[in-house]
Structure formats: C-alpha cells, structure tokens
Amino acid sequence: MVVNATQNGWEIIYHRAHALLAAQLAGQWRPKDTPVRLYETIAAISHHDDLEKEWEEDNLTEGGAPRDFTLMSDSDLEDGIHKNANLAKNALYRGRWVALLISMHISRLNEPSRGKSSELDKLLDEQLENQQLWRKELGIKKEEVDAAYAFMQWCDRLSLILCQQELPADERFLEISKGPDDRRYDIMQRSDRLVVVKLWPFQDEQFTVNVEACDLSQVKFESNAELTQALQKAPIKVLEWTFVKT
Fold first, then answer.
1. pLDDT on residue 82
2. Which domain range does residue 142 map to?
3. d(CA 48, CA 220)
4. How far apart are CA 12 and CA 231, in angstroms?
5. Could you tell me if residue 60 is inside a domain?
6. Among 117, 123, 122, which Cα is nearest to 83's?
7. Do residues 101 and 95 lie in contact, with contact meaning Cβ atoms separated by under 8 Å?
8. C-alpha separations of 22 from 56, 70, 243 in Å
C-alpha cells in the first residue's frame, strides 16, 4: 500500500486502487499511438498489483506505523516469491497476453535481486521461459511486446507519482519515463493545480482521473489486526487530478 503522512495521521492508497488509476491513464492515451492489443494491455495494467491484499497481510513497521510498500525487509523477499508465482499463474485466467505483460513486470521488479535465493532464481527463469513461449504462441514480435510493456510501465509510474505525492513544487518538471515510442515524458503541476505532461500523449485536451484513499486519524497501531480494522472503518476520500494540454 502507498502510505502518505498527513497532519492528523495517514493517507492510505491500496495498491489495487493505484493500479486502477494507472488503467485510467492508459485509457486516455491517443488511440492511434497506443500499443497492440490495447484492451488486454489495460487489463494487465489494472490487475498487475492483484498480489497485494492489505487486509490480510502484515503491514506495520516496527514502530507501529502503517508500512509503505517501499519499506521491504528480508522476510518480504521469500513471501514475495510465492505471491509473484501465484500472480503469474493466475494472470493466465485472463489470457496469455495479460500473463505475458504481468510476467515481464515481475521480471523487471525482481531481476535486481537475482542470486539472493535459489527459489527466486527459479521463479525468474520460469518467467523468461514463459515470456518466450507466449510470444511464440501469440505470433507477436518482441519489439511489439516491449512497446506494450513500456506503455504499462509508463502508466504505472505516472500513477505512483500521483499517489506518492511526488509532483514537484514551483511548477518544476519531473521525468515520468520513456513511453512506448521510446520518447521521454515529463510531468508538472501548475500553480492552479492543473497537471501538464510534456510531450502530450493523450486524446483529449483536458480530462480528470481519480483514486480512492483511506484517511486514518490514528498514528500508531498495536497490531496488524487493529490496523486492518481501522482501514476498513476509515473515511474514504477521492483524490483527483485534472490534466490539461498547454
């Protein structure tokens, strides 16, 4: 989950909600420039974080605060292996294209940890084998798959910038990432809070996206069960961003 500090406690955005925001952004892309198999790609974007189940897992820091997803421990590595294996397997219910993109996402996130665990290395080898197999079975070129995954990663990154409150102050630009066309894109929030992307990749000249967040007024929790109960009872607020073409 994404955890942002507030004046009274914490703002919590579930990872599945962040993925849905990424899918909203994908749906705004200019149709003539979208990658192949757009709707299946948006499905992969929307479901790429289905492994996260915040109400069922340990999400506290040692100090009793809600734990942001960036705060990983050694024990999380082993747990993540099983979760990623299940995510890759379950993605096949939506088809090989969705499974292919999610498998590539698993590879991207976990390849830097290769060598830390034989079980992890096995998982990573399986992903590479599956990716090669599915590309062949689908009859699609690696360049097209890479462009579709770049699109997915771009939307994921932009969603995280918004959810993690990373928009710079003073109308400064921040790099998002390279898009499916291998060009660099940057984001900036104007003084009137409207959001600008350079280069503009979207169909409409203005649109609004949103995500739901839990508003916690309690700072510290004695147990994960207490945090889970607080999350389920917390007020829900809607965060919105309006994008405009300059």
1. 81
2. 2-54+65-244
3. 30
4. 8
5. no
6. 123
7. no
8. 23, 18, 14
Tokens of 158: 């932009």
| Three-state SS at 94 | helix
* Assessment of whether the complete model's pTM goes beyond 0.85: yes
d(CA 142, CA 40) in angstroms, rounded, equals 17
pLDDT mean for each 10 residues of the chain (246 residues): 94 95 97 94 87 73 91 68 86 95 94 90 95 97 96 97 97 96 97 97 98 96 93 96 96
Residue carrying the six token digits 């918004």: 162
Contact between 40 and 46 under an 8 Å Cβ cutoff? The reply is: no
The token pair at 160 is 């995280």
Q: What is the per-residue burial (b if ≥16 Cβ within 10 Å, else e) of 137-149?
A: ebebeeeebebbb
CB-based contact 42:150 (threshold 8 Å): no
- DSSP run (H or E) holding 106: helix 96-110
Structure tokens at 105: 């996402």
- Tokens read off for 80: 């993540």
**Hey, what are 72's tokens?**
């990983």
Q: Which token pair is 99? A: 């499974």
Count of domains observed in the chain: 1
Helix, strand, coil shares, percent, the chain, to 5: 50, 20, 35
Which of these, 98, 6, 2, 96, lies nearest to 52 by C-alpha position?
A: 2
Cα–Cα dist 26/48, whole Å: 13
pLDDT of residue 81: 84
For residue 53, the Cα-to-chain-centroid distance in whole angstroms is 14
Residue 163 lies in a domain: yes
Residue 59 included in any domain: no
